[in-house]
Amino acid sequence: MLVEKNIREFIEVLASKEPVPGGGGAAALAGAIGNALGSMVGNLTVGKEKYKDVEQEIIKILEEEKKLQEELLSLIDEDAQVFSEVAKAYKLPKNTDEEKRKKEEALNNALKNACQVPIKIMEKSLEALKLQRRLAEIGSKLAISDVGVGALILKAAVLSGYLNVIINLNGIKDEEFVKKTNEYTEKMCREAEKLADEAYKIVMEKLKG
Amino acid sequence: MLVEKNIREFIEVLASKEPVPGGGGAAALAGAIGNALGSMVGNLTVGKEKYKDVEQEIIKILEEEKKLQEELLSLIDEDAQVFSEVAKAYKLPKNTDEEKRKKEEALNNALKNACQVPIKIMEKSLEALKLQRRLAEIGSKLAISDVGVGALILKAAVLSGYLNVIINLNGIKDEEFVKKTNEYTEKMCREAEKLADEAYKIVMEKLKG
Questions:
Q1: Residue A170 DSSP symbol
Q2: Could you list the pLDDT tens digit for every one of the 209 residues in chain A?
Q3: Residue A149: closest CA among chain B residues belongs to which residue?
């Protein structure tokens, strides 16, 4: 499992020409890092007299982030798995018409399946970004730079997931599926940019004000 | 050492209220991830007949990225170390005028020192981003989405480093130092945004065109 590798090993295999981890795994890890910074800020805020009024809300945020953390970590390895299926389909023979038809079908299915992982990376990172946006308002001011870092990295995670969706969509021959998936994921990108920019603005005001 | 922790452990301790790793270590790791994706793209490009003309340039890029990888990984632990020094200075007593003076001096020095790590994170991530910008033009088109992911994450790393610089600068009583550091690091942010946006544009054209 990729998540059991230590940081140095993970970076080394990412840097190599090994097929996995690649951009998808990197996006999922970025999502996990940004989300973890939200948890850190939450954990530094609860139990503090100054933030008693928002304690219950932050406890709820922490619970959601704990779930997101597990999901984003799992997606690092899920991405590697679906990528292997795509690679397998690419290697199928295409000498006869029958083989060509079978290969195209296998490839189409593997790519559609492979799309789902970066879509999930986008969804989970976007959820984490919504929580981060709220933490910019109610989290401990002592950790305000960490909220900002989390928001920046989560935005990168959502947009990175999108690039991985697009490269898979390019190989899929199903116009309706491609159109719908494109619209859905583009919308998530715009939402992520809006949330991250709002969070960043609040962070900078608190940092510089 | 933080880089010896496995991915899951690192994310768990990042999410906790433990003082380190925090936003600085997260920024350095983001830089290492983005830079590693550049190496991956380089490694997938060299040796390919189609990219023979740029092979020598890519070999040079790979050498630079290898150095940057070591530096960015080291910065994860360096950030933790300077942060401990700051925490130590904050805990100094301030009962007498003499103690107050000594504490302010110790804090000023620790914070100036702590600034240097996120500045280095910014510098190294910016260098990696310049290489990524070039890989958008000359790297293997098969890995073009990975170039884009690398650029997005490296931009986040530079801007995240900046937030860590600012939060340290806020505690430093040395107007000249604060002004100079602010100008220098703000300039790096603008450059990172420009490079990443250019790289992203090239990536999208190649992905969608």
A1: T
A2: 999 999 999 999 999 999 899 999 999 999 999 999 999 999 999 999 999 999 999 999 999 999 999 999 999 999 999 999 999 999 999 999 999 999 999 999 999 999 999 999 999 999 999 999 999 999 999 999 999 999 999 999 999 999 999 999 999 999 999 999 999 999 999 999 999 999 999 999 999 87
A3: B160
Q: What angle do CA B175, B181, B183 make, to 5 degrees?
A: 100
The first and second tokens of residue A96, run together, are 């006869």
* Contact: B76, A17; criterion CB under 8 Å: no
Pull the structure tokens for residue B32.
Answer: 């290492």
Beta-bridge partner residues of A30: none
Q: CA neighbours within 13 Å on the CB side: how many for A66?
A: 9
Residue of B nearest to A204 (CA): B163
Interface check for A142 against chain B (CB to CB < 8 A): the answer is no
A156–B156 CB contact, under 8 Å: yes
Give the C-alpha separation, B91 to B110, whole Å.
12
Q: Which residue of B has its CA nearest to A141?
A: B167
In the numeric block, which tokens belong to residue A162?
């999108």
Give the A:B interface size as CB pairs under 8 Å: 181
B5–A7 CB contact, under 8 Å = yes
- Which pTM was predicted? 0.98
**Do B36 and A11 count as a contact with CB atoms less than 8 A apart?**
yes
Question: Is A96 part of the contact surface with chain B (CB cutoff 8 Å)?
Answer: no
Within 13 Å and on the Cβ side, how many CA atoms surround A154? 38
Compute CA distances A173 → A106, A110, A180, B100, whole Å. 12, 12, 13, 71
φ and ψ at A68, to 5 degrees? -60, -35
The vertex-B90 CA angle with B85 and B92, nearest 5°, equals 100
CA-based nearest residue to B193, from A124, A155, A123: A155
A36 and B6 within 8 Å at the Cβ level: the answer is no
**Dihedral through CA A71, CA A81, CA A152, CA B124, nearest 10?**
140
Contact A163 B155 (CB under 8 A): no
Domains of chain A plus CATH, in order, are 19-208 (1.20.120.680)
Cα B26 to Cα A122: distance, rounded to the nearest angstrom: 19
